[in-house]
Amino acid sequence: MKDLHRIRLRVNGREHELTVEARRTLADMLRHDLGYTGTHLGCEHGICGACTVLVDGGPVRSCLVFGVQADGTEISTVEGLSRGEELSDLQQAFSDHHALQCGFCTPGFLMLAEAYLAQRDAAGPPAGADVDGPDGPGGLTEAEVRELIAANLCRCTGYQGIIEAVLATARSRQRAASPPGHP
Ligand code: FES
Ligand code: FES
Predict the structure, then answer these.
(1) Residue 176 Cα to ligand 1 middle (Å)
(2) Does this model's pTM top 0.85?
(3) What is the pLDDT of residues 29-47, one digit of tens each?
């Protein structure tokens, strides 16, 4: 007998109500029940990060979470980054810096980086960081980005372009947030 549950959640700002089996993963629910196929499945056991989505703003490997656990949450998937045909700044930076090749891993990297940049913007630069100097944009260092993206696997492009894209996005967001006349 199937163990079915009725749940409600928001995905990219859109309300959904559906019935899911208790054993269905969040990744399968998003892809097969709700049609958000931008979330990719690689390893399906928590290693590669391709399935990363945001649950209430935090990055989560959707292959390791059951759909029923998302009841009442706000989910963000890669489909929610762009505005129609217009890429988000982070997506554009990935394109500009050649941060993808086959693109299979890209949704996971985008969501991971988006969550990190948003959390950092909300918290402000670390105490003592030289935001305009060698610490990098907003105090974000290359080493910090390397550590962040080590969570996910890319098997074809290499990581340098991804690092550059994340740093470039942090830089442009910092410029946009600076008051007029600030360097
Ligand atoms: S598919 Fe979820 S971590 Fe690899
Ligand atoms: S771009 Fe192909 S796996 Fe990362």
Answers:
(1) 34
(2) yes
(3) 999 999 999 999 999 999 9
